[in-house]
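[audit] Reproducing an earlier prediction to check determinism. Same input, same settings, fresh worker. If the tokens differ from the archived copy the diff job will pick it up downstream; this log only records the rerun itself.
[audit] input (484 residues):
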Amino acid sequence: MGKVTGFLEIDRQVHKYQPASDRIRHFREFTLPMSDKEVEKQAARCMDCGIPFCHGPTGCPIHNQIPDWNDLVYNGDWDNAIRNLHSTNNFPEFTGRICPAPCEEACTLNLEDIPVAIKTVEQAIADKAYETGHIRPYPPEKKTGKRVAVIGSGPAGMAAAQQLGRAGHDVHVYERESRPGGLMRYGIPDFKIEKHYIDRRIEQMQGEGVTFHCGVNVGVDKPVAELLAEHDAVLYCGGSETPRAAGIPGDDLGGVHDAMPYLVQQNRRVGGEPIQSVAWPSHPIIAGGQHVVVVGGGDTASDCVGTAFRQGAVRVTQLDIRPQPPEKEDKLSVWPYWATKMRTSSSQAEGAEREFQVATLEFIGEEGQLTGVKCCEVDDKRKPIAGTEFVIRADLAFIAIGFAGPAAAGVATELDGQMKIATDSRRSRNVEANDRDYRTSVDRLYAAGDVRRGQSLVVWAIREGRQAARSIDEALMGSSVLPR
């Protein structure tokens, strides 16, 4: 907790943004930093709530000890704040930037007032720790002689690799792209998280003895069987990246794209890399001077909106089949769960036109090129309402309706028939492995992150990577000192 009466005396303050007219001119982060004193005041708002729902079942998935480090920051003890935060979260600078903060929804103060600015404080702790040199390599005191391979270098793979490396194992991470980071590097725009934050964590992990092998597509360039022969255990953290099929007529027209190739190639441009990706090959897609329609209402759709504006789109319209949510939730009915209410992302606030309770019927074109998107209103059961059809002008359209499972080419293909696949309630096909030991049906092969649980949050990926690392360490050594 912070100051006993802090929540009564101090108003909530979070990072402010550059004006939209300024930030759409670049791809950098656009939050304005807060001073240490401002952050300490925000930490002081953490109340003596008795039961901290913020890190309970409906709050933080990695169980960050939020009241503890809020109290440390409030008292100016930033050094111990980062030690506490690192005890549960390997990468707080990631979650402090791109996590939607379920902890704040579950904050006890949110029941009657405005929640503590937990995410803002978390990011500030991590950023200050880098400034003061408190984030550096922590190599193990002794080596175990065991070798572990990690397939995939997204947040789950990175978290697992760091934990296993610190336990003394010889860890090798295999990444099919030219740089580590997975879709956190190539799928999330730099205006949400600049990639040097990933780079410096990779440097830390390399200093701890973790080896990265980039440009290796396991299951294509190197068989899984070979990895299993060379290592004592293999952890599969390949993510969920197969686009969910929309089945909309006209989706083969020029100008109609899945969201991910568009986002990946722009991230590669910003990173100074050729736009051609191993997993997402495509010709150049530029929204400059175009009328853009984005189909979907989630984070990926919002990232397409922000990217299109930065490329100079004339107009961006976002289509969401869900009803427009209320401006405010009934907190007594939903707290401490995630509330369905009107939320406007920074990208949407840059000028997007949003259409709710609308279905995409058809992509319309002339001579093979997209010219418009035919839509209609739907009822509460998402059934089209007759007579409500309309057409939106479009030169480019991006389909961003989620992901249906791991990449088709690679591990899943090689182990077809050996590695069990399960279909979840979202009809996603994920690798079957429980959340107790993360073992798959293949001996010594484990799975964690989105490849196991389906499309999810970075914070869940970190949790699963950490837990899978403990399970592997326990299997190799008979017991584990790694935290759960």
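[audit] rerun output stored. Observation attached for the diff report: The radius of gyration is 23 Å.
[audit] end
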